[in-house]
Design brief:
This protein is an alpha/beta fold. Helix 4 links the parallel strand 8 and strand 9. The chain starts with 6 loop residues before the first strand and ends with a helix. The mean pLDDT is about 90.
Length: about 300
Amino acid sequence: MEYNGKFICIGLNPSFDLTISVDELSDEFVNRAVSEYREAAGVATNIARNLHRLQLAATVAGIAGENNLREYMAELCRENIPCSFIKVPGSIRENITLLAGKGNNVKTVKINRAGPTCTSAALAELRGYFSQIASPDDTVIFGGSCPPGISIEAYASLMEYVSAMGMRVVVDTDVLRADHYFRIKPWLIKPNEFELERICSTKFENEDEMIAACKGLITGGVDTVLLTRGDKGLISVTRHQVVRVPPAPVKGRINTVGAGDAALSGYLCADAEGRNQYECSQFAAAFAASVISEGE
């Protein structure tokens, strides 16, 4: 059965992402960029952009610094991605990713800045946004970190509020813990291995332990866990099934920035087409591989 609701991607701390490539990284000489790319980003925006590329309608909403918000929104408008942001003082942050190396031997260094300070008034205004534009048929995707000024509890409470309204809640953030998810009862969460360890406050020794932890989250109220594992592929876990998908082959220079966002987007797209868990997981891995490959 195909999905007929809207996708609403919520980001409380969007960013401009600047990716710089160098052939090698030296601590003795000046490192000169061989390429650089800057775009409006953040988890919520990345997922909306991916869904748009997959021919699905998605809206970006959230809270953002007012100083450079016009530039940010203009970029999304050029891509025909609807967006709506509540303004707070300050500027949208610029995050930096440094890719050092060639071919398959690329080291990635990421620096994520804090972003502008949010306010409880802005968060309350965002709550009102849902009652105006959302319906129980919609899927609301919460992506990214908490900005300064907003506690993790407040972030979780916003998700819990949306879930209580009857919408499917999807979460892709590294700040929540298991007890938050047991309250929110999301339809899907997408941790990587490190994030799963933080969620469960446990260090895993093997894949079986990770799957057991995912099943524990499902027992607590999560419907689906999509665990992305980098070059080990991904695993999706529901109450009834565990699906393991090896990594899809990639060609050329590899840029893993946004791979997790792409995997989640691919899963959502396949689900929207009425595909089963196995097919959704396969497409998630394939779409992530298509994103991280930069060609020959």
